[in-house]
Amino acid sequence: MTQHSSKPTITAFETSPDRGRGLARDMRVRWALEEVGQPYDVRLVSFAAMKQPEHLSRNPFGQIPTYEEGELVLFESGSIILHIAERHPGLLPAAADTRARAITWMFAAVSTIEPIIIERQVAILNEGNEAWTKQRLPMIEHRIRARLGQLSQHLGDAEWLDGAFSAGDLMMVTVLRRMPGSGLVEEHANLAAYVARGEARPAYQRAFAAQLAVFEASSAS
Ligand SMILES: N[C@@H](CCC(=O)N[C@@H](CSCc1ccc([N+](=O)[O-])cc1)C(=O)NCC(=O)O)C(=O)O
Fold first, then answer.
1. Long-range contacts for 44-52 (Cβ within 8 Å, ≥24 apart)?
2. What's the gap in Å between 24 CA and the centre of ligand 1?
């Protein structure tokens, strides 16, 4: 396996529309790097720069985050976190079966839970003025409630989704944080406590402070 030794560089919004609330997906990569104690640099990109050839060479979809480490360039936050987790202890268990289950939860976060939450965000932010949104939003929230109910049932009284904290929990916590103020996660006390446990982790706090500092600097200038 090729070992990369240089300090990685990630990309993040120059001025994040999340106003420093840690909702953009660089937050989960920052958190993963903090969990494994890997220092990193950040290249801040404007919305315009994200669609220019230089950034498109990092991510053909013109989005953040990306991850550069020596000659390696990655995009897709989940893939970046898996790469980090494969090279540093602290995000995936060593035992093969437990590790495979933790990776399953990474996929569940982005493929089963996140899409319907993004649907809701799109319905509210991009389609809020459409006549049909009034009918559609309750249907979307019904589907979100169904998934959160299943997740709550699985979690029960456990601290994390499958034994020790893993990249699966990191991904899931960042997904559940994407509905601030909706009250949907808070309908399940165990899910709200689960998110709070993630947010209480020192690595999360360092990552959150770092992305907030970027926003505060950008809004001060
Ligand atoms: N599947 C990709 C998705 C990456 C992605 O959606 N990136 C977004 C930022 S994180 C998503 C996001 C954006 C804004 C908020 N917010 O609260 O304002 C939250 C999350 C982006 O670059 N958008 C700019 C563009 O597409 O032109 C991944 O996981 O890396």
1. 44/11, 44/12, 44/13, 44/14, 44/214, 44/218, 45/11, 45/12, 45/13, 45/14, 46/14, 46/15, 47/13, 47/14, 49/14
2. 6
Q: Give the distance (Å) from ligand 1 centre to CA of residue 109.
A: 15
Residue-wise pLDDT for 83-138, tens only, equals 999 999 999 999 999 999 999 999 999 999 999 999 999 999 989 899 888 999 99
**5 pLDDT higher than 70:** no
Question: What are the extents of the domains in the chain?
Answer: 9-90+203-220, 96-201
**Residue 18 beta carbon below 6 angstroms from any ligand 1 atom:** yes
What tens digit of pLDDT does each residue of 55-70 get?
999 999 999 999 999 9
Share of the chain above pLDDT 90, in %: 91
Q: Is the CB of 174 under 6 A from ligand 1?
A: no
Architecture of the domain made up of 96-201: Up-down Bundle (1.20)
Please say whether the structural domain 9-90+203-220 has been given the CATH code 3.40.30.10: yes
> Of the residues 25, 31, 73, which should be mutated to test ligand 1's pocket, given the most ligand atoms within 8 Å of the CB?
25
